[in-house]
Amino acid sequence: MSKTISYLRMMRPANIVTSVADVLAGIAITGIFADSGAFMMQGYLSTTLLLCFSTACLYGGGIVFNDVFDAELDKIERPERAIPSGIISKASAATLGSVLLITGIAAAVVCGSLSGMLAVGIAFFALLYNRISKHHPFFGPLNMGLCRGLNLLLGISILPDVLQHWYMLAVVPIIYIFCITMISRGEVHGGSKGNLYIASGLYGIVAGIIAYFGYRNGTLLLTSVFLIPFIWMIFRPLLKAIQQPVGKNIGAAVKAGVISLILMDAAWAATFSTFFVALLIACLLPLSMWLAKIFAVT
């Protein structure tokens, strides 16, 4: 049982829920949720479930490989983790990560060739980040942002023809995750106020872009129902970290940033789909927060 729990901890279940929210937001952007009859009749429900399963496997696999490649460093900084503590061997973790990534790609391929290519891209950039770019101050955060951007596009790929119109929206999660990844570098030893100020500015840009599309689509009021709590949830711990940039406060800001992705995704759904769909996505937030109390987010 302890080994099973350790495998789950390694996969960061709370984070996986946020990746599912990304895909649901992407699907909402296509507008297919708006016509519930067509959604059920044309087989989009099964495709939606497959894409959610795909992203869960891809995210879980990427996170497992994060621990595989960080095993030596974790012996010093996080000796309580599964691999450095000896509960799970490095080889077993690598096998689990490989199976998850391959399964995630296979599930996406079933949904379509474009979805399959995006899944391959997510797996590639996840491994690239873990193995090479993670410790680079610019390309590391950018690399991680690309994974989330492609994840949003994975959802939009449910309607391949729509992707060419909305692919540029991937820049929003790219910027957002760039910020979180940049901030997270100070989790262990503390961070610089400069990076935190940059992050606050980029957070503002992200919120502004979502608000712009809400205004453009005539759904700003509905978008604000989710956008305002999103802004409050990310800025509250960030401002505390700016005042005292110690590891504990920065870790709290990172945790809030990751989990708040669900509210950002709900805001996208309110902007492009219906309030009901946005509310369903937002309902993933308490699940992710509950899992975050049991399993580490970072």
Automatic annotation (TrEMBL):
<dbReference type="InterPro" id="IPR050475">
    <property type="entry name" value="Prenyltransferase_related"/>
</dbReference>
<feature type="transmembrane region" description="Helical">
    <location>
        <begin position="44"/>
        <end position="66"/>
    </location>
</feature>
<dbReference type="InterPro" id="IPR000537">
    <property type="entry name" value="UbiA_prenyltransferase"/>
</dbReference>
<keyword id="KW-1133">Transmembrane helix</keyword>
<protein>
    <recommendedName>
        <fullName>4-hydroxybenzoate polyprenyltransferase</fullName>
    </recommendedName>
</protein>
<dbReference type="Pfam" id="PF01040">
    <property type="entry name" value="UbiA"/>
</dbReference>
<feature type="transmembrane region" description="Helical">
    <location>
        <begin position="166"/>
        <end position="184"/>
    </location>
</feature>
<keyword id="KW-0812">Transmembrane</keyword>
<feature type="transmembrane region" description="Helical">
    <location>
        <begin position="275"/>
        <end position="296"/>
    </location>
</feature>
<feature type="transmembrane region" description="Helical">
    <location>
        <begin position="196"/>
        <end position="215"/>
    </location>
</feature>
<feature type="transmembrane region" description="Helical">
    <location>
        <begin position="114"/>
        <end position="130"/>
    </location>
</feature>
<keyword id="KW-0472">Membrane</keyword>
<keyword id="KW-1003">Cell membrane</keyword>
<feature type="transmembrane region" description="Helical">
    <location>
        <begin position="251"/>
        <end position="269"/>
    </location>
</feature>
<feature type="transmembrane region" description="Helical">
    <location>
        <begin position="221"/>
        <end position="239"/>
    </location>
</feature>
<dbReference type="InterPro" id="IPR044878">
    <property type="entry name" value="UbiA_sf"/>
</dbReference>
